[in-house]
Amino acid sequence: MSVEIPEDLQNLEANSGIFSIWMIFHHYGIDLHIPDLVQLCRHDPEMGTSTIALAVALRTLGLDVTFFSEYDADKQPVELEFYQQAHRLNIPVIEQPLSYAEIQENVEAGCFVIVFYDTLEGVGNHSLVYAIDENEISFFDSFEAMPAHVFEQQRRVDGICQQAIVIDDRNFVMRNS
């Protein structure tokens, strides 16, 4: 199965978070306007977008989300604004990272999960989990699976905070069917 990714998404620098949201809605046959997503997430061409911004965008677009992160002592001003929005939108913000096994349990339960980790090239990256088992994890934005121990190492890099968003789409699907 091939997916036709919009050109404005392909050309967007640091697009991993926007791509993850786009992929979820593509799953439902909903085409999102990329410039609107860029604005909604306050995407920066150099830095991309923050995980909390993605959670707020997903909730704004109608999905139920829970945001997980270890304590982040270095929240940027734009992130603080999104944390305030998350509070207003009643998004559960859990200051405890999901374990690898918990990510796997959520995926197996039918939830979408977006994880934040450092690539092997040293770049922070958001990825929508495609498949996961005890040995490896696969993402919608990569053709190669990542060994579980490498993923665990890369999500513990300084500044990554082991962030994840669990997306429960049951209410969304019921409203849109």
Describe the protein.
It is a single chain. The chain is of the alpha+beta class and 177 residues long. It has a single domain, classed as Cysteine proteinases (Cathepsin B, Chain A, Alpha-Beta Complex), CATH 3.90.70.10. The chain is built from 8 helices and 7 strands; from the N terminus they run ααααβαβαββββαβα. The protein has helices at 7-10, 16-27, 34-41, 51-60, 77-88, 100-108, 148-154, 170-175, and strands spanning 64-68, 93-94, 112-118, 124-132, 136-139, 146-147, 164-168. The chain has a 7-stranded mixed β-sheet with strand order 2-1-7-3-4-5-6, sandwiched between helices. Helix 4 packs parallel to helix 5 (77-88). The protein is globular and about 35 Å long.
List the helices and strands and how they pair.
Elements: H1 7-10, H2 16-27, H3 34-41, H4 51-60, E1 64-68, H5 77-88, E2 93-94, H6 100-108, E3 112-118, E4 124-132, E5 136-139, E6 146-147, H7 148-154, E7 164-168, H8 170-175
Parallel strand pairs: 1-2
Antiparallel strand pairs: 1-7, 3-4, 3-7, 4-5, 5-6
Helix pairs in contact: 4-5
Keywords:
globular; 7 strands; Cathepsin B, Chain A; 7-stranded mixed beta sheet; 177 residues; alpha+beta
Quote the distance from N terminus to C terminus.
Answer: 24 Å
Write out the CATH superfamily name.
Answer: Cysteine proteinases
SS element count, helices: 8
Number of domains: 1
Could you tell me the radius of gyration in angstroms?
15 Å
The computed structural class is alpha+beta
Specify the biggest β-sheet. 7 strands, mixed
Anisotropy-based shape: globular
Helix and strand sequence: HHHHEHEHEEEEHEH
Looking at the structure, the CATH topology is Cathepsin B, Chain A
Question: Runs with pLDDT <50, length 5+?
Answer: none
What is the total tally of β strands? Answer: 7
CATH architecture: Alpha-Beta Complex
Mean pLDDT: 93
CATH level-1 class: Alpha Beta
